[in-house]
Amino acid sequence: MFADLKAVATDPILGLMAAYKEDPNPNKVDLGVGVYKDEQGHTAVLNCVKQAEALRLKQEDSKTYIGMAGDINFNLHMEKLAFGSSHKALLADRLTTAHTPGGTGALRVAAEFIKRANPDATVWVTTPTWANHISLFQAAGLKVKEYAYYDYETRGLNEEAMFADLAKIPAGDVVLVHACCHNPSGMDLTFAQWQRFTELAQERGFTPLVDMAYQGFGAGLDEDAAGLRHLADAVSELILCSSCSKNFGLYRDRIGAVTIMSQNSAQAQNVKTNLLSVVRSIYSMPPAHGAIVVSHILDSTELTALWYQELAEMRNRINSYRQLIIDKLAAQGVEQDFSFITRQHGMFSFLGLTKAQIAQLKTDYSVYMVDSSRVSIAGLNHSNIDYFAAAVASVLKA
Ligand code: PLP
Ligand code: TYF
User: Smaller CB count within 10 Å for the chain: N or C?
Assistant: First the structure.
């Protein structure tokens, strides 16, 4: 039965990660996968996480099953982090959260949940979007279509085309919107654009699905959730998928959450039974470790303060490189305008290079980036930025 299987394409981002690992060039630069690296090029475990893990080891007295919704305390923390601690939907028992294996797990559970609620729903994603979005929703049997988002010409948001597309989406469909730090373009909605998005969601009646994989990596924890909160104030239903991979640096522990905001608390009860039965049919219960670590951090004022500080360090380091890239390219004699880099947010920037230039950067200089010319800025540091700028300058001149 396996003989008929045809090979399928692998994830290009993860493929790039493997190719980088194998490259023997000592000057190689990894700007591929969206993983934070410090000035030493290392993805360290956060100190707040180390301390929470020590506490966990001391306090853990059982490994019995955790239940389908996962860690209830973690779930409440995630709701407060996203919506704000006194959001009306939280106070009115309209939120249902399950902790999931990563943000990807949250999206997959959301996809199956949508399939139950409306099997005919189309999920609309931004052009472009994280490639996994498309395959995740298709895997649940949902149709996926794209709405205009990024304008490759102006290197900004394709605002009018986006709102024209959104204005045609019918009730019953789902619109996926990135909460902040858009992957891959780094172009986010302004608050005024979130307001316009919200008005359209109300008018059209489509259901927003907010993917928040980078809360705290843009402008700050509350700032990055401002659009989501505005939307949640106005619409009656939405889906939120969040991830602790980046902001807690818990990538491999696979921790995230799916939250469904219902119209009222009675519907939230029905939603809960459906959400948990989706979970049960996929993996029964989530792994506990990451949720308990995050709970320990957010239960403690001291560890929370340490987390804020470590998160700000990561955010500020990335942001400081945006201007530096522009300055270093100018110092190499590059005349093209790269000022758009400072208008983008989060881990990524779209440099706007051609596929040929990207291939040349890889083969001639061992500089690795996704072939949309998305760079994960955290891969840059003071030891490699000049090498990177010289390499980019030389392919631009070639
Ligand atoms: N959504 C977006 C936009 C992402 O970029 C990612 C990956 O980092 C995720 C969701 C899911 O991340 P993870 O499953 O590692 O938590
Ligand atoms: O886009 C990125 O680089 C991150 C990490 O299958 C990632 O979102 C990439 C691919 C993948 C899982 C995570």
Answer: N
- Give me the catalytic one of 28, 37, 246, 328: 246
- Whole-number average pLDDT of the chain: 97
Q: How far is the CA of 397 from the centre of ligand 1 (A)?
A: 35
Which residue is closest in CA terms to ligand 2's atom 2?
A: 34
Q: Count the Cβ atoms, other than its own, within 10 Å of residue 147.
A: 21
Q: What sign has the CA pseudo-torsion 40, 179, 219, 253?
A: negative
Measured between alpha carbons, how far apart are the two ends of the chain, in Å?
51
Domains and CATH numbers, the chain: 11-45+316-397 (3.90.1150.10), 65-299 (3.40.640.10)
Would you say the CB of residue 45 lies under 6 angstroms from ligand 2?
A: no
Residue 214 beta carbon below 6 angstroms from any ligand 1 atom:
no
The answer to whether the bond into 119 is cis (omega within 30° of 0) is no
Please tell me whether the interface predicted TM-score (ipTM) of this complex is above 0.90: yes
Give every residue of the chain whose pLDDT is below 50, as ranges: none
Q: Is 256's C-beta closer than 6 angstroms to any atom of ligand 1?
A: yes
Query: 281 CA distance to ligand 1 centroid (A)?
Result: 22
Residue 57 CB contacts under 8 Å (≥ 6 apart), including other chains: none
The reply to whether the predicted model has a pTM over 0.80 is yes
Query: What pLDDT shows up at residue 148?
Result: 98
Q: What pLDDT is recorded for position 128? A: 97
211 is catalytic: yes
CA of 32 to the centre of ligand 2 (A): 9
> Which of these, 80, 75, 77, lies nearest to 90 by C-alpha position?
80
Q: State whether the beta carbon of 384 lies less than 6 angstroms from ligand 1.
A: no
